[in-house]
Amino acid sequence: PRKERVIGVAGATGVKAYPFSALELTPVVNDTFADLDVVVFLDAPTQTGLAYSRNVEGRTLTFDLEPGGSGVQTAFIDRETGSRWLAFTGRAVSGEMKGATLERMLSHLAFWFAWTDWNPETALYEG
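RESULT FIELD:
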C-alpha cells in the first residue's frame, strides 16, 4: 500500500525496500541484493529501523535476534561465531568478533509512495 512504511536501503548498484509489516513478523532479515549482503532490523516498539552490511573482516555473517532484548538492549547473535552484537550500534560486545563494528548501510525510513517517487527501480522485500 502507498502509505506502508518501509526501510529503504541503497547500494551503489541498486535499492531495496523492506516493509514494516514484513519486518514486524521477522524483525531481523538477512538478505542479498545488488551484490550486497545486508541485515535489516526493525525494533517495533520504538519504530527504529537500521541496515548494516553483513560482511565483516572478510566473512559474511548471518544474524538472529537474541531473545528477551528490547530498545537499546536489543542484540543479534551471529550464527558463524556466536558473537553478540548490539542492534542499535552494530558493535560486537562479546564472542570471537568482540570489538568489531558492522558498517551502516545508507538507509531511510519512508512511506512506500515517497520512497518509490525517488527510487522508482526499487526492489521490494516480500518476506
